[in-house]
Amino acid sequence: MIAPITGKLRKRFWLDVGCSIGLGVAAGYAYWYGVHLKALERQENFYIKLERDRVKAQSS
């Protein structure tokens, strides 16, 4: 008869949970700083340029 393997699933579960949380946080930071903030900066620069052009057109 083969002896049952005890505690293996529990150890693996916590390893999987820890890795998934760590990878999820890392992916979130990568998205936030690599994609989101750059897109937000482009958007802000566009609206600043638009406002400057509008003010320049009104004053001319």
UniProtKB/TrEMBL annotation:
Stretches that traverse the bilayer: 12-32
Alphabetically ordered keywords of this record: Membrane, Mitochondrion, Mitochondrion inner membrane, Transmembrane, Transmembrane helix
Compartmental location: Mitochondrion inner membrane
GO molecular function per UniProt: cytochrome-c oxidase activity
Superkingdom to which the source organism belongs: Eukaryota
GO BP annotation list: mitochondrial electron transport, cytochrome c to oxygen
First-listed, main subcellular location of the protein, grouped into a coarse class: mitochondrion
One GO cellular component, as annotated: mitochondrial inner membrane
The name this protein goes by in its record: Cytochrome c oxidase polypeptide VIIA
High-level lineage: Eukaryota, Fungi, Dikarya, Basidiomycota, Agaricomycotina
